[in-house]
UniProtKB/TrEMBL annotation:
<feature type="domain" description="Transglutaminase-like">
    <location>
        <begin position="85"/>
        <end position="148"/>
    </location>
</feature>
<dbReference type="InterPro" id="IPR038765">
    <property type="entry name" value="Papain-like_cys_pep_sf"/>
</dbReference>
<dbReference type="InterPro" id="IPR052557">
    <property type="entry name" value="CAP/Cytokinesis_protein"/>
</dbReference>
<protein>
    <recommendedName>
        <fullName>Transglutaminase-like domain-containing protein</fullName>
    </recommendedName>
</protein>
<dbReference type="InterPro" id="IPR002931">
    <property type="entry name" value="Transglutaminase-like"/>
</dbReference>
<dbReference type="Pfam" id="PF01841">
    <property type="entry name" value="Transglut_core"/>
</dbReference>
<dbReference type="GO" id="GO:0005737">
    <property type="term" value="C:cytoplasm"/>
</dbReference>
Length: 365
């Protein structure tokens, strides 16, 4: 008898606008191939910035690829974005920002890609979100936008024109044109609300101590689920004042629910591992390896505890997103299947353990 279970079916989700959950940096050779051709006779950050801004062409035709809510769709993980821009030498803001970030990270800098919206001539652009970079240099944070430094787009045609204006800008100055969705990336204490920015009010108000550095450091310890939730709360607190912020908050919630389902699957996977170990020992009449009565009881208890934890997590997900609903449903089915197997084995175990140990060798398995 072999009743082992395999948890292998995964449902690929395409998350609109954000890829918080699928970031990866595994293309070291591709990154090194760029580093090897950059002229580092001057400051390394400047050398990388100039290379990205001048060697990558903006893919203006991608601006046509927007959905009905005017949000660009990105369905590739970070490693694919970087591989694509290295191969094509062309991309949009996320390609510029991710490549710049990957190169700096490879050299040991603390660097981040920041999502947000922009203002030009005091007018908020509600159509396209944007991405740029923050880099810590000599214990100070500076902002960089290699996309805007590369040139400009007119009538969907890219015009290459290097502009160093967007290199190593102070947070206070950068905020007048680049507004991060999450206020920790303003690098200002206290941060400006989205209400203030909507009203072109850039005066720092209030005495609330907002330690953005602590918040950034805390992210390193968070699970993906915790990271999404804390970011969502900060964004909401600053105000959902335009459709891009609303879409960002919505997708943070989607990513939070996705992380919750995947946490449930992690718990389910552990339950399946426990169950398969039990089945292996049962198939060997609990002799290879030897399982004591307490080990048998404890293992079944651990399985049931992990199943309960999975169900609690799944029950907390009430997303209207059809992809998440499908993902949740598939996971529920797998939990139910395992539970039925465990319930059946529980009946067997109760009978088995009720038999005097010396007579168990004659028990039918």
């Amino acid at each position: 008898m072999n009743r082992s279970i395999n948890l292998s079916k995964q449902i690929k989700l395409t998350i609109i606008f954000l890829l918080l959950f699928v970031k990866s940096f595994s293309q070291t050779s591709e990154i090194d191939s760029i580093i090897n051709i950059i002229d580092f006779r001057r400051d390394s950050v400047r050398a990388i910035f100039d290379w990205v801004a001048t060697e990558i062409e903006y893919d203006s035709q991608s601006l046509l690829l927007v959905d009905e809510t005017n949000i660009m769709l990105y369905n590739s993980p970070t490693k694919s974005i970087i591989r694509e821009v290295i191969s094509r030498r062309k991309g949009v803001c996320y390609h510029y920002a991710e490549l710049f970030n990957a190169l700096l990270t490879r050299l040991g800098y603390q660097s981040y890609v920041i999502d947000g919206y922009v203002m030009q001539e005091d007018i908020i652009n509600n159509k396209y979100a944007h991405a740029w970079n923050a880099v810590k240099v000599k214990d100070k944070w500076f902002l960089y936008d290699p996309t805007w430094s590369a040139g400009y787009v007119r009538n969907f045609i890219f015009k290459k024109r290097y502009d160093e204006k967007w290199y190593k800008v102070s947070p206070e100055s950068f905020l007048h044109t680049h507004i991060p969705f999450d206020p920790i990336w303003q690098f200002i204490n206290p941060p400006l609300s989205h209400y203030q920015i909507r009203d072109n009010d850039f005066t720092i108000k209030g005495t609330v101590n907002f330690n953005f550095q602590d918040s950034i450091f805390a992210r390193l310890k968070y699970t993906k689920r915790e990271e999404c939730w804390t970011s969502l709360q900060r964004v909401k607190e600053m105000g959902l004042t335009n459709n891009l912020i609303e879409k960002y908050a919505k997708n943070l919630m989607i990513n939070y629910d996705l992380a919750t389902i995947q946490s449930a699957r992690d718990s389910l996977r552990m339950a399946i591992n426990y169950y398969n170990k039990y089945i292996y020992s049962r198939n060997n009449r609990f002799k290879k390896p030897v399982w004591t009565d307490n080990m048998i009881r404890s293992n079944l208890g651990d399985i049931k505890m992990k199943i309960d934890a999975s169900n609690i997590l799944l029950d907390s997900v009430n997303s209207s997103d059809l992809r998440l609903a499908q993902y949740k449903s598939e996971t529920k089915k797998q939990i139910l299947s395992l539970k039925e197997s465990v319930d059946s084995e529980t009946i067997f175990i109760n009978k088995y353990l009720s038999i005097w140990s010396r007579l168990r060798s004659a028990y039918k398995f």
